[in-house]
Write a structure and sequence with these properties.
By secondary structure, this protein is of the alpha+beta class. It has 3 domains: 319 residues, alpha-galactosidase from lactobacil brevis (Beta-galactosidase, Chain A, domain 5); 282 residues, TIM Barrel, CATH 3.20.20.70; 96 residues, Golgi alpha-mannosidase II (Immunoglobulin-like). It has 13 helices and 41 strands. Helix 7 packs parallel to helix 8, helix 10 runs parallel beside helix 11 and helix 11 packs parallel to helix 12. Bound molecules: alpha-D-galactopyranose (GLA).
Amino acid sequence: MSIFMDEARGLVTLQTKHSSYQMKRDPDGLLLHTYYGSRIHSGDDMSHAIARVGRGFSGSLTVNGTERPGWSEDVLPLEYSCFGVGDYRASALKVRHKDGSRAVSLRVRDWTVQKGKYALKGLPALYAAPSEADTLLVRMEDPYSGLAVELQYGVVEELDLVTRAARIINRGKTKLWLEKAASLSVDWQFGEFDWISFHGRHTMERIPERQPVRHGIQSIGTVRGTSSHHYNPFSILCTPQTTETQGLCFGVSLVYSGEFLMELERDQANQTRLVCGIHPDDFCWELKPGESFQTPEVLLFCSDRGFDRLSQCTHRAIRDHICRGIWKRQDRPVLINNWEATYFDFTGDKLIGIAREAAALGIELFVMDDGWFGKRDNDHAGLGDWFPNEKKLGCSLRELGEKITETGMQFGIWFEPEAVNKDSDLYRAHPEWAVQIPGRDPNLSRDQLVLDFSNRAVQDYLIARITEILSKAPISYVKWDMNRSICDKYSTALDAAHQGEFAHRYVLGLYRVLDTLTTAFPEVLFEGCSGGGGRFDAGMLYYMPQIWCSDNTDAINRLSIQYGSSFGYPISAMGSHVSAVPNHQTGRITPFATRAAVAMAGTFGYELDIRKLSEDEKEQIRSQIRSFRRFYPLIQRGDYHRLSTPEDLCIAWSFTDPAPQCSEAVIQAVQLRLESNGVPIHLYPVGLHPEGIYELAICNAGCEDRPLRRIAGISGAALMQGGVTLPVPQEEYHAWTLLLKKNGICAD
Ligand code: GLA
């Protein structure tokens, strides 16, 4: 059991392998947050560190008219902060009562501990076997209004992970409205922190930005309907000294695909507060007596050995405890997607031609992208009409699928179920299903509107359409796209008083559709997409184990995007393809081998017109696929390490067989800038067995069978402490592969 209760002292300590999280009930029932950091003993009552000081303009907690001097909700570290009763910092819960007042005072009623991890109805959440996790439920109540909050905690010891969510229940006699219902707040009383968030834009997602946490509130978030390209719902709080291999850091991953807000506040007493959950700007939720509201879940990771260990935990949590279904363990196929090969300009025969060539080179799955349905020859029309365009395909979808599978490949297909073009039969039949405000000209984006996924009729229609398509053709893969931000939010299925529920109901509707379809078609591999990585979050990964990382296929830009993504998300989740040069997004020319090395730090596939390649390039594809298959167990299931950054001259990363074996490793490196009379690049591998004796082969990427150099009989300690030197590159964007194999243990 990882949860330790000390009823007499009102103390609860959540223990993971390397971290501790503690809360304490004060004599008046206030729930204090007393510690979160490196592991301490479960009996250590960390409330000793709370300073009992009165601060001007920070009123005292008052019970039955009596002030508790020096005990102020404005400065105390609190477990779930509420708006309106003297805590003036960023709050987690804001409620409007029927009389218009907006105060909530939560007091602990009781707490219980259960074996296993709680689940959330209708929302994605981390799951674990009963032996792997424990649950703590803390029940709190506002004695004045009857509003109750159940704080939910899951503890996964092995992953240094505490999950948090909250259920808010109206036990009062009158309606109330939730104006903000964050999943958590966490207070750190002491310490300086940096905050690393991952910002970006379409085709340039998840770029890390590290800044000191300053006084005031700083936040990231989105009101775009989806988790967005612009700010990812994963961030890291760390001490200013923290590096990849040293220092304390916390990972915060919101398991949600909609509008979110992550706030950090450094207060008057230099304390740091984190608040995270649904964005309140587009949120107002009515709770009638007896009703409850469930917040999404947040995963909180703690590492006192830097970002590398933090990422091992975030990767395992998502790979093994968020992703579900057969594809969680099954080897993913090497795919070819026709988008950058043909865009809308294809026929069935053209696709079959690409599939034949691809099959002969060892590619396993052919994906037909946008343009196969309705009157969809460009992006101005047809979206929403999920009926195969048999004239364009030259046959039925089933026949096309059969022809593709006859080549020996599996067949996959693109959908964008959440959107509609005005020029479509669906829009003409159901304009009320599109998200727009009656009487207002809606904002168009890519000539499309969004379908109202908060409306059950819309959900059911799309479930039925997609079910029919997936049942009638031999389809083993679906790319689920979503290509615009949502505004003009309004649902014809909600009355005026409930429009504030639209944004969250949209996400709940999407989750219902995804749950229904992935349950009905468990063998189909679903890949998420939103103009690339516009909805790259742990919520989507609960339904689909991989997401197209970015619409940017330029290998060099991808190095930055995949580097940023790797802090919070595993390599097995990152859709990544080799595309043509000059690259369609940047015009850059990179070596074929480099493009393959970069795509291998992902799910690996191709997105180019294979018929235009030379015989030599086709031979390279055969050998790239052989290398990928050889490295696959390490890439998809091993430990991933960042060895340098996109700001360095050379970026490198590695995949290692996890401890204690550490039996092999693959390091890949790409030279980012060439310099005259170049200085050698020196890399320090991590994740090796210090006493292991390794054999090292340094190869040009794509030539793993013909090493440039071999170093035999060297210890893991020597490699990790002394490093490895790469040859001086003679070509821009050159890539190397370093292979390490352990074949013994040091005697001394
Ligand atoms: C989005 C996707 C692309 C492609 C196009 C098709 O932009 O991210 O990969 O599928 O849509 O319209």
